[in-house]
Design brief:
alpha+beta, 2 domains, 6-stranded antiparallel sheet, 3-stranded mixed sheet, 9 strands, 34% helix, 25% strand, elongated, ER membrane protein complex subunit 10
Length: 250
């Protein structure tokens, strides 16, 4: 009887360890902005969109931004197709000149630094829903980062960007997104050209030193004109008759 009892205890212990392990590894609920392992060998964060007739945003997943490992931010985009219901709703929103919104969590766009502190909240951008429809879901999404690689801004534009009232077929043109994704880091502003200005000043000074005649005064340059004008004034005043009438002598 001892052997079956020992066997039962060992079996019970094994089942307990397996169940406990499953519970621990399945209890991995993620908050907004938490990264997820992907089949691409990196991490991903959700790209969400919202388009509502009443203009009250209700975001749902459009796709995922896949962050690749490396010193420079490298991001790929995977996207879902629009369902028939979503295509109909998007056209309804476009008919009332509503908005199409996207949002992404504020994260660090470097897969190998995801253990660092993550920022809270979302970054949102929008375009007119009619532009999204008439572009046949062709858009350009730009992710803007700071010097540390943190995502600080997102923008979206459509190609083309105007609404002209063009009819669009649901099944053909509003099913698959045609998106161009770009990551834009900070750009250093041009500094003042102090060195160039000083160099030009030195060149001007040297040039004037080689040509001393340029440093002559106004009178030294134009003395003959001034003298001629003075002589003309003297001669003119001498030739002019005196003012007043003449007198007769008897």
């Amino acid at each position: 009887m001892a052997l079956p009892l020992t066997f039962n205890i060992a079996l019970f212990y094994t089942l307990f360890v397996v169940l406990f392990t499953d519970v621990v590894f399945c209890n991995n609920g993620r908050r907004v902005g938490d990264v997820m392992d992907t089949e691409f060998g990196g991490f991903s964060v959700p790209l969400e969109h919202s388009f509502e007739v009443d203009d009250v945003a209700q975001f749902r997943v459009r796709g995922a931004l896949v962050l690749k490992a490396g010193r420079e931010p490298s991001v790929a985009l995977t996207q879902n197709q629009l369902s028939e219901e979503d295509r109909a709703k998007l056209k309804e929103v476009a008919a009332v000149d509503g908005l199409y919104r996207i949002r992404v969590p504020r994260v660090l766009l470097q897969a190998d630094r995801q253990t660092e502190r993550q920022l809270e909240g979302y970054l949102t951008a929008f375009v007119r829903a009619c532009a999204m429809v008439e572009s046949h879901l062709s858009d350009v999404i730009s992710l803007h980062t700071d010097v540390s690689g943190y995502l600080i801004g997102v923008s979206i534009v459509t190609l083309p960007g105007a609404c002209r009232g063009t009819e669009v077929e649901d099944e053909v043109d509003l099913e698959v997104f045609n998106t161009t994704l770009s990551v834009m880091g900070p750009v250093n502003a041009p500094g003042p050209e102090t060195a160039l200005f000083l160099e030009r000043m030195e060149m001007e000074t040297e040039k004037k030193g080689k040509n001393p005649q340029e440093q002559k005064s106004f009178f030294a340059k134009y003395w003959y004109l001034i003298l001629g004008g003075a002589i003309f004034l003297v001669v003119s005043s001498a030739a002019q008759p005196p003012a007043g009438g003449g007198s007769e002598q008897s």
